[in-house]
Automatic annotation (TrEMBL), chain A:
Listed PANTHER family: ALDEHYDE OXIDOREDUCTASE IRON-SULFUR-BINDING SUBUNIT PAOA (PTHR45331:SF1), OXIDOREDUCTASE, IRON-SULPHUR BINDING SUBUNIT-RELATED-RELATED (PTHR45331)
Gene Ontology CC: periplasmic space
Pfam families: Fer2, Fer2_2
Pathway named in the protein's UniProt entry: Alkaloid degradation; nicotine degradation
The name this protein goes by in its record: Xanthine dehydrogenase YagT iron-sulfur-binding subunit
Transmembrane segments: none
Automatic annotation (TrEMBL), chain B:
Source species of the chain: Nocardioides alpinus
SUPFAM superfamilies: CO dehydrogenase molybdoprotein N-domain-like, Molybdenum cofactor-binding domain
Annotated Low complexity bias: 11-21
Membrane-spanning intervals of the chain: none
Protein name stated in the entry: Xanthine dehydrogenase YagR molybdenum-binding subunit
InterPro entries: Ald_Oxase/Xan_DH_a/b, Ald_Oxase/Xan_DH_a/b_sf, Ald_Oxase/xanthine_DH-like, AldOxase/xan_DH_MoCoBD1, AldOxase/xan_DH_MoCoBD2, AldOxase/xan_DH_Mopterin-bd_sf
């Protein structure tokens, strides 16, 4: 495949990056293998676990299912872009406060997913458990949070704490708070 | 029985700096790094100009490699090395058959590693591996096993040094007293499935060809214990343990799969040896996680027990059948908990193993206890129903005064308190007769099961304490696999040193530190803790209250003298509320409560997380987890997370853990017991027993999927109604 590289520009956690890629490379592998951005994790590479969740142009995506070549020009936020260890995003702070993690490997994906999920709920997007899909105000019950977060597996079993953490910050504008670029 | 005060583990405000360092909430010290994704896991350790490896694996279950054609792979630009048994380094010390890879043309199981490609990029390595054409001379493989399998043998010892068989009294005579309860149970093959797959980067530094002992191997790995991995890999790689540096500061979950070195580590080290000086990286795919990194072997069990009208057990005969790999034997200690759990005079317990041409199994969270207690605690529910005794009362009535297996006194045993307190807090008194509670299409019921996990602390550990920069550092080869060791070990050290916890750091997760056993068998906190306490006390004795920069001691922690005179276990009780849809057969778990007596709780916040994590994995096993091994071809049919389901957010409702005050000096200086495995033991039985209380359907095979409910009810008709409905 050598010689068939494509040039891709990405803004990653607020920094403009450019890289020449094998067109088979996913956003996930571009971040981890080509750009050294390790704040996004690989758990399955097949859209089955959610560990690779990042926020692209405001929406959460599974970066293992996104070819980098088709994301030229995209604005990508990973967990490291939402906050820093000294200045956590409120969602990250809530995860720490509620011990919503154990091994921590699913955690960056959970955090990105949760932040974007709250935006989706705020925008009135229904879920499988919403009683009325035409209702544009979402009552973010625990069942709603669980349903909307079910793409993010946590094998350590921190689910009940993750839901509490998300409920702690639900209603706050977490996507724009904190130290990051989102 | 002492009266015990339950304590809620709901995280409280972190302790003030002047509070006693242990017994209080301490926020996970690695939480900021983990929530920002900046804690470096194995694959993420920065190395210069890495090469990338992709393995070649056998596509037959048994036979020989006839020919390997790697011409196309070698021709691909960017390929640096194709490694097969034809050109691999020789392994002279064969300590572990599963690690002895690429030494012959023999294939022992499907998915076995038979080669590798190393290339400039992961893509090229993977593409090239697919271009390697392997032809085989295939032989028929033995796969599949059954209860009363004629090929079965009884191992002398099974995992954790437990006896293969054990009897007391006269089980056959005892079974004739009272009501006989008899049934078969099964658990499927399960996979640990940590969200971080195995990953390793190896760098072989050949310092001087003239001085072979100057060779160094660096491995950035993800494992439960760096020293153990180094020691086990060294002879296979022709090195001394001191020549291997293993670095594993953060581990993205394990549950047993990263507790023992697997063949991919040998493979990557071999490749690194051929490509001296260049880092060789390998990130296992999720599909490969279902091949060569262990699993919980399936088990089939038969229990026969007799029960008197008052709920007293007469006798128990508990036997298990399980597959074991011809390549390397591994048998779970499935029936061992039955030996000590209840006051039963007449008992027979036997493990049977059936050799298979399959990949080796291994320990997975609470090996043995998990499988055996599913069957036993379900059978006890059947016994309670058979004689009309409340299932909590039945367990209390069979409480043994001392360990019925060894005759030793209990160090502490507060199972009854867990059952009583759990029942109170859960609202057990609201439990209705079988099938009596209906909520629309749903039948709702409550279930209970006991939990236990033994003390697995067998070998002494060492730890160091160093004073530097005005702070103390506690040093040992411990590993934090999500348990909280980074957070808890400084708490233990701070208490023993008499300083605030904020003055103590941990240095763990790499070799070159004092020896400590891997994080397994739920011993980490209390066994490492013993060494930490010993080192802290020695530090104060040696260097006093006002140490100088660089002062340092190392000390050994040993099991408390006299502890072998006691039977040492942790206990707990699970309560579950399940609902069963009469329309779809779906099972939902509305709520679960675990009440545990697990010694002194060092950090309630991380302890609760481990306990609810175990319960969640138990719920996952109850509802979803089931790997299907194709007995014709030897592969796992559903080998990824789309096919092998684990619990997701939406599966887990209201789930809580409480612990009872307990301090067990016979576990060690901290008074703590192990909690990593306790939370999963018995959880599926509590759910199954709740399903029975809800629906009258007794499910004895995990997982409790809708088809099993329908099988019990009769097949659904074309119109969607059932021939027989509850
Ligand atoms: S790595 Fe993308 S969903 Fe698992
Ligand atoms: S914290 Fe380990 S997988 Fe979620």
């Amino acid at each position: 495949m050598a010689g068939h590289e494509v040039s891709v520009r990405l803004t990653v956690d607020g920094t403009a990056r450019q890289v020449d890629l094998d067109p088979r490379v996913t956003v996930l592998d571009a971040l981890r293998d080509e750009l050294g951005v390790m704040s996004v994790k690989k758990g399955c590479d097949h859209g089955q676990c959610g560990a690779c969740t990042v926020i692209v142009d405001g929406r959460r995506i599974l970066s293992c299912l996104a070819l980098a070549a088709s994301y030229d020009g995209a604005d990508v936020t990973t967990a490291a872009g939402l906050g820093t260890t000294d200045h956590l995003n409120p969602m990250q702070q809530a995860f720490a406060d509620r011990d919503a993690l154990q091994c921590g490997y699913c955690t960056p994906g959970q955090v990105c997913s949760a932040v974007a999920m709250l935006e989706e709920a705020r925008a009135g997007m229904p879920s499988h458990v919403s009683p009325d899909v035409s209702d544009t105000t979402v009552d973010l019950t625990d069942a709603e949070v669980r349903e909307r977060m079910s793409g993010n597996l946590c094998r350590c079993g921190a689910y009940v704490n993750i839901v509490r953490a998300i409920q702690d910050v639900a209603g706050q504008d977490v996507a724009r708070a904190g130290g990051g670029a989102a | 029985m002492t009266t015990l005060e339950p304590r809620m583990l709901e995280p409280e405000a972190p302790a003030a700096a002047d509070a006693a360092p242990t017994g209080h909430d301490r926020m996970r010290v690695d939480a900021p790094a983990k929530v920002t994704g900046t804690a470096p896991y194995a694959y993420e350790q920065p190395v210069e100009e890495p090469l990338h490896l992709f393995p070649i694996v056998a596509t037959i279950a048994l036979g020989r490699i006839a020919e390997i054609d790697d011409a196309d792979a070698r021709a691909l630009p960017g390929v640096r090395l194709v490694l097969t048994h034809a050109n691999a380094p020789r392994i002279r010390v064969r300590t572990d058959a599963a690690l002895t890879i690429l030494q012959s043309s023999e294939v022992h199981h499907r998915g076995e590693i038979i080669g590798a490609v190393v290339a400039d990029s992961p893509r090229v390595a993977r593409e090239a591996a697919a271009l390697v054409r392997v032809t085989y001379d295939e032989q028929p493989a033995e796969l599949g096993f059954s209860i009363d399998d004629p090929r079965a043998t009884v191992p002398r010892r099974v995992n954790a040094f437990k006896h293969g068989s054990y009897e007391r009294g006269d089980a056959d005579a005892g079974l004739t007293r009272g009501t006989l309860v008899e049934a078969d149970y099964s658990l499927p093959m399960e996979f640990h499935s940590p969200i971080e797959p195995h990953a390793v980067t190896a760098i072989w530094h050949d310092v001087s060809a003239l001085r072979p002992r100057s060779t160094r191997l660096t491995m950035y790995d993800t494992n439960q214990g760096t020293g153990g991995h180094g020691a086990l890999l060294a002879p296979v790689l022709g090195l001394l343990p001191t020549q291997i540096e293993v670095i594993s500061p953060y581990v993205g979950g394990s549950f047993g799969t990263k507790g023992w070195p697997w063949p991919h580590l040998v493979l990557v080290a071999m490749a690194a040896k051929r490509l001296t000086g260049r880092p060789v990286k390998y990130a296992m795919t999720r599909q490969q996680m279902f091949r060569t990194v262990g699993h919980r072997p399936a088990s089939k069990q038969r229990i026969r027990l007799s029960v008197e009208a008052d709920g007293r057990l007469g006798a128990i005969d508990h036997q298990s059948w399980a597959p074991t790999s011809r390549l390397r034997s591994y048998v779970d200690q499935t029936v061992s908990a039955t030996r000590m759990m209840y006051d039963v005079a007449d008992l027979r317990t036997i493990h049977h193993a059936v050799v298979q041409d399959a990949a080796p199994g291994s320990f997975m969270r609470a090996p043995g206890e998990f499988s055996g207690m599913f069957a036993l605690e379900t059978a006890l529910d059947e016994a309670a129903h058979a004689v009309g005794v409340d299932p909590v009362d039945l367990r209390v009535r069979n409480e043994p005064a001392q360990d019925p297996e060894t005759g030793k006194p209990w160090s502490t045993r507060n199972l009854v308190a867990c059952l009583r307190e759990g029942a109170d807090q859960f609202g057990w008194a609201e439990r209705q007769p079988v099938g009596a509670r209906r909520d629309g299409e749903w039948l709702v019921g409550l279930g209970v099961a006991s939990a236990t996990y033994p003390n697995m602390y067998f070998v002494p550990n060492r730890a160091g304490v160093r004073f530097t920069g005005g702070r103390y550092v506690v040093e040992l080869q411990a590993s934090d696999i999500g348990t909280g060791a980074w957070t808890v070990l400084p708490q233990i050290a701070a208490e023993a040193l008499g300083v605030g916890v904020d003055l103590v750091d941990a240095d763990i997760g790499h070799t070159g530190l004092p020896w400590a056993i891997p994080a397994g068998g739920s011993v980490g906190t209390f066994a490492w803790g013993d060494a930490v306490v010993a080192a802290a006390r020695k530090f104060r004795r040696t260097h006093g209250e006002h140490p100088d920069e660089g002062d340092h001691v190392t000390a050994t922690g040993r099991m408390p003298r006299g502890s072998r005179g006691y039977s040492r276990h942790a206990f707990g009780a699970h309560f579950a509320q399940a609902r069963v849809s009469t329309v779809t057969g779906e099972v939902r778990v509305d709520r679960m409560l675990g009440a545990f007596a697990a010694g002194r709780i060092i950090n309630p916040r991380t302890a609760r997380s481990q306990l609810i994590g175990g319960m969640t994995m138990g719920l996952s096993a109850a509802l979803h987890e089931e790997a299907h091994l194709d007995e014709r071809f030897g592969h796992v049919v559903n080998g990824d997370l789309a096919g092998y389901h684990v619990a997701a957010h939406a599966d887990v409702g209201d789930l809580e853990a409480i612990t009872l005050e307990e301090h067990d000096p016979w576990f060690g200086a901290t008074g703590a017991k192990g909690i990593g495995e306790l939370g999963i033991v018995g959880a599926p039985a509590a759910i199954g027993n709740a399903i029975f209380n809800a629906s009258g359907v007794r499910l004895r095979d995990l997982p409790f999927t809708p088809d099993r409910l329908f099988d019990a009810w009769g097949q659904p008709t074309a119109s969607g109604t059932r021939a027989t409905s509850p």
